[in-house]
Write a structure and sequence with these properties.
3 domains, Threonyl-tRNA Synthetase, Chain A, domain 2, Diaminopimelate Epimerase, Chain A, domain 1, alpha+beta, 7-stranded antiparallel beta sheet, Elongation Factor Tu (Ef-tu), domain 3
């Protein structure tokens, strides 16, 4: 197969002849004598587009490295058909750029901070680079992003070298070569060299802009999220809009927003704690007013009440068999407490069968059980309440 995507990665269409067609339950797999469709590999997704009038849904790599076109299972394409291959160019070019951005970023991470790349994912929405570090020093990511954008402005060309395995290893690249035999080296001039079978843009200037979306710890390693080109600019403009809105809300400068948010978060946390304490106090008063001589009570709340206030209040009761029902639209939330002398009650034996009377689900661990029922029918709720009263008879 003539892999024209290597000799001219910017070619958008080409004539070809179908050399093999394989039908399976899931797809029609097609081989052609020449192709511009890059198969999935190295973190880069396969190309899609058209084979004559037929939609190419994906391109996968055959064991010998050829491009297998994936079409609909019912596709009527036949061997020896002479057709035109047409790329979904927006899809292809997007991933050429993302792949090149990954090389640039991984190279700079290594040369500037000795940070290695363990794995990458080139997704439609962003690029991820999983590093070999459990933590990265403050400012390191920013310095790499600044350097990457400087390389974009300097317009470094991307070139390819085919050489023997031994000659390639002698270059001392940042990553060992994973394949045997002759290798293809991708070089970003004056920046990075790496063995790679993917396709890339012709120069760094085509990346436009590289922007870091953030990072997280995955499997003990720092995973970095990036975007490039127009998508990076859109994200930057979106975040600028958010920051500008916060500037106006807090009447402060951008660098002061973090402190303002921290202060507000602390105040909200304090108010939540105060509200929880008040809810517990009110619930405890209601429980003490509702229990009978057997420390038994049923409480019917109104929608919007704080069910957790009742749960917290239980800790201040020595003996209690309590059912709390809280309407929630078409559903009903329920809370059951079995404490002190009632803790011997087997919830699964006595209570769980009663839940079926109003389609209730849930569980818990002594002394608290809770859940929700897809029901607010009064007759069914009354039947459940009557069943709960049986705990008094134990």
């Amino acid at each position: 197969m003539d892999k024209h995507y290597y000799t001219d990665p910017y070619c958008k269409s080409i004539s070809c002849t179908v050399t093999k067609v394989t039908h399976t339950d899931k797809a029609t797999e097609v081989l052609t004598d020449r192709t511009i469709f890059y198969p999935e590999g190295g973190g880069q997704p396969g190309d899609r587009g058209m084979l004559g009038p037929y939609s190419v849904l994906d391109t996968r790599k055959a064991p010998d490295g050829d491009s297998i076109l994936i079409l609909d299972p019912a596709c009527p394409v036949k061997q020896n058909d002479a057709l035109e291959l047409v790329l979904d160019w927006a899809h292809r070019y997007r991933f050429m750029a993302i792949h090149t951005a990954q090389h640039l970023l991984s190279g700079l991470l290594f040369t500037m901070h000795s940070i290695g790349t363990l794995s990458v994912h080139q997704g439609q929405d962003y690029l991820t680079i999983e590093t070999d570090r459990s933590e990265i020093a403050p400012g390191a990511i920013e310095s790499v992003v600044l350097a990457a954008n400087r390389k974009i402005r300097e317009n470094h060309s991307i070139v390819y070298h085919n050489m023997s395995h031994s000659d390639a290893e002698a270059l001392g690249m940042r990553r060992s070569i994973k394949v045997e035999g002759d290798v293809r080296i991708v070089e970003i001039r004056d920046t990075d060299r790496i063995a790679c079978g993917g396709i890339h843009v012709a120069s760094t200037s085509e990346l436009g802009l590289i922007y870091c979306l953030g990072h997280e710890i995955i499997r003990g390693h720092v995973r970095l999220y990036f975007n490039c080109g127009e998508e990076a600019l859109k994200q930057l403009l979106l975040e600028h809009g958010v920051i500008s809105s916060l500037n106006r809300t807090f009447s402060c400068k951008a660098e002061e927003i973090e402190g303002k948010v921290a202060t507000l978060t602390e105040a909200v946390s304090t108010l939540r704690a105060q509200n929880a304490a008040l809810s517990k106090k009110l619930a405890l008063a209601e429980i003490r007013g509702a229990v009978d001589g057997d420390c038994f009570c049923v409480i019917r709340c109104k929608e919007g009440d704080d069910l957790q206030g009742y749960a917290q209040a239980v800790e201040d009761m020595e003996d209690l068999a309590m059912l709390v029902l809280l309407p929630d639209g078409a559903r009903t939330k329920w809370l059951i407490a079995l404490k002190g002398r009632y803790e011997k009650t087997d919830f699964n034996v006595l209570i769980r069968p009663q839940l079926a009377k109003f389609n209730g689900k849930g569980g818990g661990r002594s002394p608290l059980f809770q859940g929700v029922a897809d029901c607010n029918d009064e007759a069914q709720l009354s039947a459940f309440i009557d069943g709960f009263r049986s705990v008094k008879e134990l």
